[in-house]
Amino acid sequence: MNALVGEARHLLSTLNFDSERSNERSALVLLALANLNPSQHWRDASNPQLRTVEIMDFLRNHHGRDYKPNTRETIRRQTLHQFVEAGLVALNPDQPDRPINSPKTCYQVTDRALEVLKEFGTTNFDAALHRYLSDLPGLQSKYAAEREVNRIPVLLPGGIKIDISPGGQNMLIKQMIKDFCAIFAPHGNILYIGDADSKWKHFDQQGLSSLGIHVDKHGKMPDLIVHMPDRNWLILLEAASSHGPVDAKRHSELNTLFAGSTAGLVFVSCFPDRVTMRKHLANISWETEVWCADAPTHMIHFNGERFLGPYDSK
């Protein structure tokens, strides 16, 4: 471990990060975000905007750390996420409303934090650190408010208001709630909404349990679950803008996940438009439905036996 990595670990500790956020991995991520190689000093620090893959490339090229592609999520979830929450790093400063799962998602050390980094090792550091930590609660509130502005408001049936992150498929999920539910499930109860940022954004565990469903939280949930009590249908909707439709494999997975349901299961693949749908047409499972947000009053039925409704798989 070169001296700069040790200094980065110490610096993160003085910024009140826990042991996981001041370990070697997190220290290296900080060095990449500060654009520092082992031969440089903290006064040389800068704050480029970097994607996770660019951080990993920097560490490979300048610090000899070849993190495997499958560690990208660890870096994002176990280091970068906490750096952002603490106000050390800004998320998508160039486009704050960028979808959270966009490949262009980038991170940048804030200007205020950069001032502290550049003073590390000098006689001015303690004073700079004190000023920064004193101002940090206000800075965190400011950053949180900025992030909140970019969230997507959603109104559920019954007047309940929630918000979801500006994730790639969340605009489609909003349309599914607003248009599909109003047209095809007007008296339905929304039991679950998956958010790109928070998987269990809205989860009516009691409502699902009353239908005989005990969800395994490790199971891959559909994006939206709606119960129609007048017909006792449970509609499982997938936002297929990025992850694809209900294909044969997914159809089987959902049947297994909701095997205990006392309500009939209806499977719906939702697309933003028919152009996107056509890309996935060959993979859509029979005995499912397709809905496109650009033609919200219409449904495409992938079986001639009946229109919208459950099929007896027993």
Automatic annotation (TrEMBL):
Domain BsuBI/PstI restriction endonuclease: 152-305
Tagged with keyword Nuclease: yes
Highest taxon of source: Bacteria
S-adenosyl-L-methionine keyword on record: no
The species this protein was found in: Actinokineospora bangkokensis
GO biological process: DNA restriction-modification system
Name of the protein this chain belongs to: Restriction endonuclease
Gene Ontology MF terms in the entry: DNA binding; magnesium ion binding; type II site-specific deoxyribonuclease activity
Domain named BsuBI/PstI restriction endonuclease HTH: residues: 5-137
One Pfam family matching this protein: BsuBI_PstI_RE_N
Sorted UniProt keywords: Endonuclease, Hydrolase, Nuclease
